[in-house]
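Subgroup meeting minutes
Present: P.N., E.W., G.H.
Scribe: E.W.

1. P.N. recapped why we're keeping a running log of single-chain structure predictions: easier to compare across weeks, and new members can see raw inputs and outputs side by side.
2. G.H. added today's entry (470 aa).
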Amino acid sequence: MLERVVKNATKRSRSAAGVGKVVGTSVASGSASIFSSSPPSTSNSCSRIIPRQPKYFPRDGDALALRFLGHFFNCTLGDIVHTAGPHDFWRRTLPTLAQSEPLIRHAITALGTTHWLFMGHEFATPSQIAASEAVLNQQYNQAITHLIPLMSYHPDSNPYIPLILICCLLFVYIECLRESRTEAFRHLVSGSRLLASLMDVSPISSPPGKSLREIVAMFRWIDSDVTPFAYDRLLSNLASFANPAAGGTEAESGPFASLSEVEDELTEIDMEVYDNKWSAHGGGKWADLPLEHREVKRASWETVKNRFLVWEGRFEKTLKVLGLENDDSYEVLNLRFQRHMWRLMMNNNEQLWDEDPKMKPEECHMVMDQVERLLSMTSARMRVFTVHSKFIPALIVVYGSCADTAIRRRVIALLRTRRRREIVWDSEEVAQFLEADLERCLAGQKTTEWPKIGPCADGKALLFYWPPYS
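Output recorded in log:
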């Protein structure tokens, strides 16, 4: 499994061709400050690269690479921290590792470079774009160079397993930003297979302040984010690494310590639904399951539902304790939106595993109203990358669950109000795909059933990978 991780990464290291295609719409006017020798900016905006070097940065190395490393900590890290749980994973781990581990330093520099290109600094000159691509290629290859020696240990006794897995996640984010979906899937699959091989082995080492269990959570959450519409599991079953259902007992009914803890707990509950879908009692189409397997799944669903109800009560108590009952901030509204989606799922629990769920028009508009309000609170100029999918899959659900043409057109319009990429889900790509599907429906070339979403190796699917990642 370790060799597979290196093999997949080495394939990517041979060329950075196509990186320039991620450069899109400008997010702000002004100079390409990452190439400037002017004094450090005091702006917190991601549209301007802050060239100062935090104290934990190495003082040697290429100046441009150091500035992209600065971009990672000043901008990219925020996109990761606020959308990937546990919420403090990267902020606790990466500053120390960037100083002590060349592997991680080169990987996050490559990620910072890719993120800068993705954000769309159209005011950068072709030579500056070329210089950025050269840094990306160099830093990625350097990361591979440092990764290979760590693979010489036997998997059962390799003290660098957590470090390898962290690097694997960073590679996934790089490939998602580059729209290299197949490569991102390969890294995910390789990492999950490595973890699956360690199921019965206690890790003897972990990165500073970080447990292997939390790293596994990142893989599980990404897996659930990219496969909500799939009938085949993408990653190995990592449920044995799951955290216990701490929020599902009456004894733990008090408020959460923070809103971040609220979201982390809800994500854990989401994982229970996901694990139940792919349990040993069968995944895939509900109609194809034996009756006894359906009963087991229904019982499991009742357990998850009860845990959600406990979460909901604690969430309300948290808002009251924090004085946020009437708060209209993005963070609070986003949590309320997630609760609303859960409520819809609970109200339609008989369709939980159905291949063609249905929603009433009024339900669709309620979802879209909330998404529209949340999107209106984000920048219309800045391209956004998150490592946790929230809005795009929800809009796909609305489109597929209601055949009303006006509702489907509104879904497509909402997808185009902001340029977002949520892991592998790109808002413009999804909008184009659904628009083409709607046109075929209106022309009588297909029925209004759900379009094929994927991920799969079917070239007609939205999430198409080639060659197969397996």
